[in-house]
Design a protein that fits this description.
Helix content: 40-55%
Oligomer: single chain
Strand content: under 5%
Number of strands: 0
CATH superfamily: Domain of unknown function DUF5071
Shape: globular
Number of helices: 8
Largest sheet: none
């Protein structure tokens, strides 16, 4: 399977979001930035499922999340600091703190 096949196409692409759970780690690492984009809006139906998968890749995501936190996208930033959003934020040490933002 081509690694790009695991990237959801729409915010309702539950099939691909569910495939992430069984995808090879190497394939997920290749598309981390594209998967992270699906966390731009915590209200999107697949956001929580993708966050649940990405929590296992926190260390690899830090540079990408730093870029988001340094951006002008307030909504996307909010998804990384709101404790009610997704699994990446609800981990033992908040991702925003691990990225150097407190």
């Amino acid at each position: 399977m081509d690694h790009t096949e695991i990237i959801p196409r729409t915010k309702f692409d539950n099939e691909r979001a569910n495939q992430l759970e069984n995808a090879k780690k190497e394939n997920i690492l290749l598309v981390l930035p594209q998967l992270l984009e699906w966390l731009q809006d915590i209200n999107w139906p697949i956001a929580q499922d993708i966050g649940d998968v990405l929590v296992d890749f926190e260390d690899h995501l830090i540079p990408h999340i730093r870029a988001v936190l340094n951006s002008d996208d307030g909504g996307w930033k909010f998804s990384f600091i709101n404790p009610q959003s997704h699994s990446l934020v609800q981990s033992s040490q908040p991702i925003s703190v691990r990225c150097g933002f407190t």
